[in-house]
Design brief:
Elements (H helix, E strand, L loop, with lengths): L1 E5 L4 H12 L3 E6 L8 E2 L5 H8 L4 E4 L9 H22 L3 E5 L24 H17 L5 E6 L2 E2 L7 H9 L4 E4 L9 E2 H13 L2 H4 L2 E4 L7 H12 L5 E4 L1 H13 L7 H6 L9 H7 L7 H15 L20 H4 L5
Parallel strand pairs: 1-2, 1-4, 2-3, 4-5, 5-6, 6-10, 7-9, 8-11
Helix pairs in contact: 1-6, 2-3, 3-4, 5-8, 8-12
Length: 339
């Protein structure tokens, strides 16, 4: 197939470029950054660029989006208007299928766990609202003749992932304890990027009547936040422990730091870490025949192993412009002395 991938320089996009190219497909990558696999450099909102990238394509995989760390106006523009431009260009190019990579963020902070696909959109911030609006665009195009697979992964990680995980890894490697809000006994489901790539490939080859649907994607095996963080500290080998912080005072302090732009930890993440957060993947198992291979701990430990080999390479801190960059810790870097 001829496969066009938006966000091809990102963590997921770059992995898809490598995997699909190795599988023998002709891959075109669209991204602002002219990195490996990016054949069309430019903005995902640029209709002319998309027309060139999608011409003659069989499938479009839409991964491009703005992260929660972006300014609100950029999140709305890149995620919503970018999705609108992608689907318009896909229809002009008469592609056979679009795979739209969404997020479980569209559920907001659901109290129903495991959360099924039919749970209503309940966005709680600019990022989740933009992802929900982008999904609505995708589903409207599905109502026509264009098959659209909507994939909702949990937070995915693996080799190449930095972002906020780099803070956990750095503290662990330095031999520090690591804090959690409250007891840390909430169950937070994540997802290995290798499993996500496998899921995308599965959807690419599924019949239209199966692919033309919405699927949650996440690890099948997962435990508590405390257990996952402790696994990293144990792997670091310094005998350090996860320590509890009083939940309400810590939440208030972190919220204040976020509003003051002194911390990269955004509000929805803070509140998500206070309650169980996991989704049902029954539909993906039953309809797609998809079975995740890696647990939360498998994914986070693989990422930590990769980080340990890569940490000395010069990497600019770009305030989370991509998930492949370490985020500046802001005031949290000074807090390390207490742990």
């Amino acid at each position: 197939m001829v496969i066009a991938i938006t966000g091809a320089a990102g963590m997921l996009g770059s992995r898809l470029v490598d995997r699909l190219g190795a599988d023998g497909h002709h891959v075109r990558g669209v991204d602002l950054r002219p990195e490996n696999g990016v054949t069309h450099v430019g903005d995902v909102r640029d209709a002319r660029l998309l027309d060139r990238a999608f011409a003659g394509a069989t499938v479009v995989i839409h991964c491009a989006a703005a992260l929660p760390s972006y300014p609100a106006d950029q999140i709305r523009s890149v995620t919503v208007e970018g999705t609108r431009a992608v689907f318009a260009a896909a229809e002009r190019a008469a592609v056979a299928r679009v795979v739209h990579v969404s997020s479980t963020a569209v559920y907001g902070l659901p109290t129903r766990v495991p959360t099924p696909e039919e749970h209503p959109h309940a966005p709680v911030d600019t990022y989740s609202a933009a992802k929900a609006a982008a999904e609505e665009i995708a589903v409207r195009h599905r109502a026509g003749s264009l098959p659209v697979a909507v994939l909702r992964p949990k937070t995915f990680l693996g080799p190449g992932r930095m972002g906020l995980f780099s803070m956990l890894f750095e503290w662990a490697e330095e031999g520090r304890n690591f804090p959690v809000l409250g007891r840390g006994d909430v169950r937070i489901q994540m997802f290995a990027v290798d499993d996500l790539v496998d899921a995308v490939v599965t959807v690419l080859h599924a019949p239209d009547e199966v692919a033309n649907d919405t699927y949650n994607l996440a690890a099948e095996r997962f435990g508590t936040l405390r257990e996952d963080f402790q696994a990293v500290l144990d792997a670091a080998g310094h005998g350090r422990r996860v320590v509890s912080l009083p939940a309400r005072p810590a939440l208030a302090a972190l919220s204040l730091l976020e509003r003051s732009r002194l911390s990269p930890v955004y509000g929805r993440l803070l509140h998500k870490l206070m309650a169980d957060s996991y989704v049902s993947i029954d539909k993906a198992r039953q309809r797609l025949g998809f079975q995740p291979k890696l647990s939360n701990q498998d994914a986070i430990l693989r990422t930590f192993e990769w980080w340990r080999t890569e940490r000395h390479r010069e990497r600019p801190a770009r305030d989370g412009r991509t998930s492949r960059d370490p985020w500046r810790q802001g005031a949290l870097a000074a807090a390390k002395i207490f742990f």
